[in-house]
Amino acid sequence: MGAERQIPEHVARNIERGRRALSGSPEMLRAIADEIQGWTWDSDRIVEQTEERLARIAEMVADLQEKQAILLRLADAMRPERFEPPYL
After folding, report:
1. What's the predicted TM-score (pTM) here?
2. How far, CA to CA in Å, does 52 sit from each of 6, 21, 46, 58?
3. Which residues contact residue 7 at a Cβ distance below 8 angstroms, ignoring those fewer than 6 apart?
4. Of 54, 31, 50, nearest in space to 42 by CA
5. Cα-Cα-Cα-Cα dihedral sign, residues 10, 15, 16, 20
6. Residues 42, 35: Cα–Cα separation, whole Å
7. Gap between the Cα atoms of 1 and 20, Å rounded
8. Farthest-apart Cα atoms in the chain, separation
9. How far apart are CA 17 and CA 73, in angstroms?
10. Cα–Cα distance between 49 and 52 in angstroms, integer?
11. Low-confidence ranges of the chain (pLDDT < 70)
């Protein structure tokens, strides 16, 4: 005989809440829909904020790349062989 699989208590509670909600009043169903809509709004806001942050990071990276190019040109201009007299 195989052992029966136990459903974790928190899962069983959520299942029961779902059953009650589905058999509940229209007000209960509207409350659930409002809650889910709130989740959607939150996730949309998070996505928007993340996109804004990524755009700022991209600007910072571009700025750093420009500065890096300047520093590389300066380093190239400062190489010792550039300062040796041509007659040596």
Report:
1. 0.47
2. 45, 38, 10, 10
3. 15
4. 50
5. positive
6. 11
7. 33
8. 98
9. 67
10. 5
11. 1-4, 21, 24, 83, 86-88
Structure token digits, residue 40? 């959607």
Residue 15, both tokens? 């299942």
Quote the CA–CA distance of 65 and 24 in Å, as a whole number. Answer: 60
pLDDT at site 25: 74
| Torsional sign, CA 66, 68, 72, 78 | positive
CA 63 – CA 57 distance, rounded (Å): 10
Tell me, what amino acid is at 59?
A: E
Asked if residues 32 and 21 have their Cβ atoms less than 8 Å apart, the reply is: yes
CA 48 – CA 11 distance, rounded (Å): 32
